[in-house]
Design a protein that fits this description.
The complex is a heterodimer of chains A (497) and B (86).
Chain A: H1 6-14, H2 25-28, H3 31-34, H4 41-44, H5 55-76, H6 81-84, H7 87-117, H8 121-146, H9 157-160, H10 167-181, H11 185-215, H12 218-234, H13 236-247, H14 251-280, H15 290-308, H16 317-323, H17 327-337, H18 352-361, H19 369-381, E1 417-421, E2 424-428, H20 431-439, H21 441-444, H22 450-455, H23 464-470, H24 489-496
Chain B: E1 3-10, E2 17-22, H1 27-38, E3 50-55, E4 78-84
Parallel strand pairs in B: 1-4
Antiparallel strand pairs in B: 1-2, 3-4
The chains are: A mainly alpha (497), B alpha+beta (86).
The complex binds fe (ii) ion (2 copies).
One fe (ii) ion (FE2) binds at residues 104, 107, 134, 137, 227, 231 of chain A.
């Protein structure tokens, strides 16, 4: 007996659906979980994505991928790259693992929601693989980081971070909960797999993999590029769902979801990826600036994908493009200044050579962000380290949960965007964060950011020491300057002359 | 007296600080409390200037001897601290 070729049967089996006789369709697919928006079952059957993987193929390929990354890890274990790596690179790894490893595990739940509740049979098939992918990503990244826990307790934050009330962990959790845990299957497909994964994880995993290869960290480079091959497959769900939405008159609804989550994702990555790429990664290993990565992956590729689907750039596009010169530089100063409040050691990245690179990549950096670093550097040179540390907390955004920031120095534009809603004063870092809130106040109004918790008396004593305890940061976990201020040595020499 | 939280946006800084100030204090005292967390830390001192308090939402510059509690600010409301000649 000859068997059929895969392309002769694949579409048929992936599209297998059934017509329920004993239970009404809306009981099998409740609207709040499915989010089918009145589009009939038959229309969802048009779902199509290009990978067309069978379960047998999937298992075999994943097994090979795992064998690949584990053997690279085993082969390089003796060399122990991390032990001799530049401290800035170690911080990059610690920030990445803490913010993402457990979130990958959480993404399995989001995929499972599509696998169970999407009315598109093809989506249910691909999301089943996606769910297994995300378990793999969680497990791999928890395992790969674990071997370093003997070097410092900060590595333990790969597992710990998202279970704490550390401020960046609150920010990440608020965003991930919004996108992955509290949306119907169709919204999840659009927000998580299209906006977040096609757009931003691509950049984090491929961009960082390129930097890792340059830095000689082949274990990490291999690991995250292997993860990215799964991401590029299951990220296709979003485009396929969007096509069904667009073909059935739901383009405005789709656009609105993209507009909300694209901004939320940008804010998170401006904290996570921006400082890593432009300040922590050793200068000689930087492949491109963060802005250049964003221009390539987001402004280039993502916009093309929007175009192909008949969708538009988010309405605030010009503000977003301008923010590429601002948000992550400002957040970086904040993270460095508040270094005891993070689980990694921020690298200042402000030596004379690094500043020259920043000025070249971001013309005008010296008279804006450079002015801030001038003051900080001067304090280090004069031995006034206490003046390089905070004694109070910064105002946080009630949407992104990260500090409200702007451009300092000669182009000062720092500004709070307030809103009084049901008698409570909320603060936002931009008109767009405030717009996100106003789209669905019921969803967001109850959340308390770190400052709200301090003012409500949840943080005791209400000072920096109490804040650090509330965040779960013990000595040995709190961040310090990654290079023990060695980057300021050239300024010290100059001052001595 | 009561300690009152305000959001302090000092001219030239890249972030806004939450500062607890005595609501009986004058605007000059508010400015001093705000400057403590920004000037000399991330913003260069400007000894030839004085810091004036401006309500962010309206642009109203408060008299230097006005008491904070007379300004009618909401808790955590944002004020800008502007380097001025007088
Ligand atoms: Fe993943
Ligand atoms: Fe994923």
């Amino acid at each position: 007996m000859t068997s059929l070729k895969q392309d002769e049967y694949y579409d048929l089996i992936r599209g297998v659906n059934w017509t329920p006789k004993y239970v009404p369709e809306e009981e099998i697919f409740p609207e709040e979980m499915s989010g089918s928006r009145g589009i009939p079952m038959a229309q969802w059957e048009a779902f199509d994505e290009p990978y067309k993987v069978t379960y047998g193929d999937y298992v075999q390929t994943q097994r090979e991928k795992d064998a690949g990354v584990y053997s690279v890890k085993a082969g390089l274990e003796r060399a122990n790259y991390v032990k001799t790596a530049d401290p800035g690179w170690v911080s990059t790894l610690q920030a990445h693992y803490g913010a993402l490893a457990v979130a990958e595990y959480a993404a399995a739940t989001a995929e499972a929601r599509m696998a169970r509740f999407s009315k598109a049979p093809g989506n249910r098939v691909v999301a089943t693989f996606g769910m297994l992918d995300e378990m793999r990503h969680g497990q791999l990244q928890l395992f790969f980081s674990h071997e370093h826990t003997r070097l410092s307790r900060q590595w333990d934050w790969a597992h710990k971070a998202l279970y704490t009330n550390e401020w960046a962990a609150i920010a990440a959790r608020h965003m991930f909960d919004d996108m992955m845990f509290t949306r119907d299957a169709i919204s999840t497909a659009i927000m998580l797999t299209f906006a977040f994964e096609t757009g931003f994880t691509n950049m984090q995993f491929l961009g960082l993999s390129a930097d890792a290869a340059e830095a000689g960290d082949h274990t990490f480079s291999n690991l995250i590029s292997s993860i990215q091959t799964d991401e590029s497959r299951h990220a296709q769900q979003g485009g396929a769902i969007l096509k069904v939405m667009v073909d059935n008159g739901k383009i405005d609804d789709a656009q609105h979801m993209i507009d909300v989550i694209f901004w939320r994702t940008w804010k998170l990555f401006s904290v996570l990826t921006g400082p890593i790429m432009d300040y922590y990664t050793p200068l000689e290993h930087r492949k491109q600036s963060f802005k250049e990565f964003m221009e390539e992956w987001i402004i280039g590729q993502f916009v093309r994908q929007l175009d192909d689907l008949g969708l538009k750039k988010p309405w605030y596009w010009d503000t977003f493009v301008a923010d590429l010169d601002q948000a992550h530089h400002a957040i970086h100063v904040g993270v460095w200044f508040y270094r005891p409040t993070v689980w990694w050691n921020p690298a200042a990245g402000a030596s004379p050579e690094e500043r020259a690179w920043l000025e070249q990549k971001y013309p005008g950096w010296n008279t804006t962000f450079g002015r801030t670093w001038d003051v900080i550097t001067d304090n280090i040179v004069r031995g006034r380290l206490n003046m390089t540390l905070p004694e109070t907390l910064p105002l946080l955004c009630n949407m992104s949960n990260v500090p409200i920031v702007g451009t300092p120095g000669d182009k000062w534009n720092t500004k709070d965007y307030p809103l009084v809603y049901e008698g409570r004063l909320y603060h936002f870092g931009s008109p767009i964060d405030r717009w996100c809130f106003e789209q669905e106040p019921e969803r967001y109004k109850g959340h308390m950011n770190f400052i709200d918790r301090v003012l409500a008396g949840l943080v005791q004593p209400p000072d920096m020491a109490g804040a650090l305890a509330y965040m779960g940061l013990a000595p040995g976990e709190m961040g310090e300057d990654a290079h023990d201020y060695a980057w300021a040595a050239a300024y010290q020499r100059k001052a001595a002359e | 007296m009561a300690m009152f939280p305000i959001a302090s946006n000092v001219e030239g800084d890249m972030a806004i600080m939450v500062v607890m100030v005595d609501d009986e204090g004058t605007m000059d005292e508010v400015a001093k409390a705000c400057a403590y967390h920004s000037v000399g830390r991330r913003v260069a001192p400007r000894p030839d200037k004085i810091l004036r308090v401006r309500r962010s939402s309206t642009g109203e510059v408060y008299p230097r001897d006005m008491r904070l509690k007379e300004a009618g600010l909401l808790p955590t409301e944002c004020v800008d601290l502007i380097f001025s000649d007088a």
